Amino acid sequence: MQLASLTSLFDSHDYDLDDVAEGRRDVPPIFVRSLPPDWRAMKAKKRKRAFVKTVLPLILKANARIRAERAKLLDLIAAADGDLSRLPEARRGDIERLAKRYRTEPDDLDTLKRRADIVPVSLALAQAANESAWGTSRFAREGNALFGQWTWDAEDGIAPKDPQADKGDYTVRAFDSLGHSVAAYMNNLNTHPAYADFRERRARLRKAGKPLSGVSLAGGLLKYSQRGADYVAEIREMIRYNDFQSLEQARLAIVPLG
């Protein structure tokens, strides 16, 4: 899909970010597989808005799946009442499948509950924009890689032109689609030991009945980049500067596109 076709598609569905932020319109379920080959032809300001329009539905879709899994998990935990043997075999199988997806043991329900949770829209948007340079990076254009995730399997990634020293033969993981990149990023935050602090912060907000704040939870990503605290500060500033908080309550429209 060329850039003109993508922007025309957005316009044909009255996809306006200001309307979404103000709650006047839900996000149309437009799921773009790859960025247009002429993506960099846009001026920076228009490209940033087009990037948000492209990535936002993918974030909402990935979070919707996680939200459904979390709701199922909480129902199962309530039904078990501390004893998984009380559950019918089929429902124990549901627990086992969720535990496998979130890389924990089926009887470790506390850990599973901390892992099966959403990533704030504002945080995902800021990291996608930062890691992919608003979709202009070679990894985003050639490998649908929005979040700079590494892999040591050369067949799964794209080799950087200037690899970091002493990090081995890593590549940047490539994906079949932008949606797969978003889903893998969320799974990474929800399962990798490096982001245990992120999950603990999120769990504390849940327990306190507070909204999941991208600015707050960014503090749990010190290990996402070798830049540590500077990276966290940059992500927080991107959230604030681009007013990504205004999109936290965005929802996918449930009507099919015409």
TrEMBL record:
Pfam families: Glucosaminidase. GO terms for molecular function: amidase activity. Residues 97-232 form the Mannosyl-glycoprotein endo-beta-N-acetylglucosamidase-like domain. It comes from the Bacteria. This is Mannosyl-glycoprotein endo-beta-N-acetylglucosamidase-like domain-containing protein.
